[in-house]
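Sync notes, pocket subgroup
Present: LS, DG
LS reminded everyone that the earlier model was apo-only. Rerun requested with zinc ion included. Inputs:
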Amino acid sequence: ARGTRTLMRNFMSTTKGETHVLTSAAEVTESQKSEAESWPIWDSTEDFKAQKQPKFVLRYRLEERVVILSGSAQLSPTNGDPPFVISAGDACTFYAGFVANWVVTSPMRKHYHYFDAAGEMCAEPSKTMPVIACDAEGCGKECVDESYSIETEDICPKCVQKARGPDKRRYQAAVRCELGAPAPETGGAQPAAATAKRKTPPAAAARSSKAKAR
Ligand SMILES: [Zn+2]
């Protein structure tokens, strides 16, 4: 079951194959700095006090641009790209779709803003992102990051995995989706039930997803 579907397209921005662009402090231009001055500030100082070197996974649903004011973090992209460090003075653009494990290694403050596919400033993802609720009975879990589309239903990965009997057979034809759109085959970890026998060709899946969006 889906919420604000019409916005979906905006979030599938093209990234020219890049997941992020890091500009080291020495290369950050004055205009980059002054643009960022009006952006909100993310401050991890309190988190840092509560848990030494906070660790978390960030999955970018929108492009985010940041200018680091203080502190540092190590980022390990989940796509196998080499880990890198961002620290005071650096600017970084994270494109939509970028996923990384973060370790904040020194209390970080950064200016940040989100941008849509057209490069326009936009509200943060929590206020604009589509909502997909799992349609499996008694679940309802939010599963926009990864869902399985079957007929008119959206099923979360957990429910696909634990399905038995008729549902299990039915879910074998489900299409794996990321942000509500059919996902490219990545070879990553996927519930076996959904990948074992995929009968819907990608073109048909794309058509049915468009049809549902109307
Ligand atoms: Zn579920």
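DG: The first strand starts at residue 20 and ends at 23.
LS: The helical segments are 30-36, 45-50, 125-128, 157-162, 165-171, 192-196, 202-213.
Action: DG to write up.
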